[in-house]
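Exercise 3.2. Students should predict the tertiary structure of the chain below and write it as structure tokens, then compare their answer with the key that follows.

Predict this chain's 3D structure.
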Amino acid sequence: MSDRSPLDAPQMGGAPGTNLLARVLTAFGYIMAIPLFPFAVKIVQEYERGVIFRLGRLVGARGPGLFFILPFVERMMKVDLRIVTMDVPRQDVITKDNVTVKVDAVVYFRVVNPEDAVVKVMDYIRATALVAQTTLRSVLGQSELDELLSKREDLNQRLQQIIDEATEPWGIKVTIVEVRDVSLPAEMINAMSRQAQAERERRAKVIHAEGEFEASKRLAEAGAVMAAEPATLQLRYLQTLTEIASEKNSTVVFPIPIDLISMFLQRQGGGDGQGGPAARREIPAKDS
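Answer key:
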């Protein structure tokens, strides 16, 4: 759109009658601006812009601050430049792997070109909302359920890029798109719960097997040390007795190693050369 006023119409090849009418109306507007001064004064806030139309033609955007317009000749439309937070209604989406989910999102956008937002689209907020709904169903319909649940950031970036490209001709800049909630069917939730439980059980079994393997290696090393040094077995036995002795609330039957008995028998045989063997021969006779 050109910013030239109707006074410049002869240079643009306009009709002479139209140019004359524009000049007359403009002069009439200047004359009426004095008695209609309160209607000619316009104030635009810092976060707004005033889009001016003169006899139906776009003049441009003004503001912020105070300025004047010509009554009956110029008309102003205010456009808010602040970020708009828009909820995308919940949509029924069928994912790429044929799972029906309900998804809603939130879109953050703002007007960067107020002239295009007024001239090129009737209602830029409603148009952006419809584009967001259509894009949400389209993009999520091309994604699998696992991608929707685990790669949310990538989907948000794709949605933001597609919606921003669609609304750019309207002077709209989409800054953030967030998929807020994903509702799954009850049977799908149960199936995912069973899958997660099976995965946890698998990991528990693997960890338990790895622990058994490490314990067996340590026991083998301990057995090798005890085989090389028999005294370590006696020390381990005494340590076990010490640990059991601290528990006074139970009765423990602990077997005595045969090595200790053999030590006493050897001492008895060393004191009496004939008593030891005779005693050893009499023990099985009594047991029989």
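Discussion points: Confidence is low (pLDDT under 50) at residues 1-14, 273-288. The two ends are 123 Å apart (CA to CA).
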